[in-house]
Design brief:
Strand order of the largest sheet: 5-4-3-2-1-6-7-8-9-10-11-15-14-13-12
Protein name: F-box domain-containing protein
InterPro entries: F-box_dom, F-box_Sdz-33, Zygotic_Embryogenesis-Asso
Strand content: 25-35%
Oligomer: single chain
Shape: elongated
Largest sheet: 15 strands, mixed
Order of helices and strands: HHHEEEEEHEHEHEHEHEHEHEHEEE
Number of helices: 11
Distance between the termini: 55 Å
Amino acid sequence: MSNSKFPLLNLPSEVIDRALKSMDRLELIAYSFASKNATKQVKSLNVLIQCFVTEFAGSLILTLHTVSARAIQFRFDLDQDGNLNRTSENVEVSLLGVAEETFKWTNQGKTLIEWFHHLNQLFKHSARMSIVRFHTNQPVANLGDIRSLLPKRICLYISTYNPEADDNEKKYAQRVYEEFLPNATYLYINLNPFNNTIYLKDFRFRNWDFLDITQLNHFRLEDLLELNAKQSIFRLSFNFSSVNLNRFMKLWRKGSNPRLAVLWMKYPSRTAPDVNVVLKGIPYHRTTVDELKKMHGYYSESWIDSFDDCFKIHRNDGTLAVIFLKLFARVGGLDEAQLIMLVA
């Protein structure tokens, strides 16, 4: 871009600074392409964004969620091999929110990986969270380049559209996991392409801040006891017995799973988890959702209103946990039993 398109470049630095602070985020991004100095100026502002999302799903999609209700999205065509060292003819830019707008930008003479680098360097240190989403049916060739440009802590999603992923998809999912593992503190696995004991063992031993796995075909009580994540959500493809839940609760009271803050388990069942079995031999107090909302801010989440049975138990050291039990009706299949355990 020439200086004539951005006359700001010819103004004194203090005037430029005031002008930049009056711009919205999309205007700042546009200005950042004007020159290397413009890029530095925008970067130095440390403009806050809530979340930077990178997704590979037929296209390369870069989404910046701002502190307002709006998001800015950049979409680029991907070839079959997922090569990011190429240019996209045009860039589709969208403002998402109440009043959505979409328009075209030129590629600024940059390859896809250069676009990824440019936007990351603008907001890498001011984004509260960086999310990277991979779909196993869309391979990407430049995994190492992508990881090198990301912040040290990311939220990693690996999804497959097919519950019966083929060997190529499984191998690709494993490559993604191994490549981004050093950066990932949050891990989401959808329609789990990792249904083998090697990766399941690795998942449960790591110190995740958050672990969310859908379609687990193999999950034992021993796996649950070795879980080292702070917050975990599991959707199982089989019934997890109330007897095993009872054994887990008893061992938790004795000191197992010391990092556990949230456990949410969902599994097919015709009946709700039996409280007389789940809490057998464990001192507990039945409580209400309204009482919990007064007790702790964490329990003010609106979803707990849908749970009928709430129980308080204590670890031997006095730590409080609240147990929620419910059976959810599902259309076209088995109902789903759910257990949530929140540790105060």
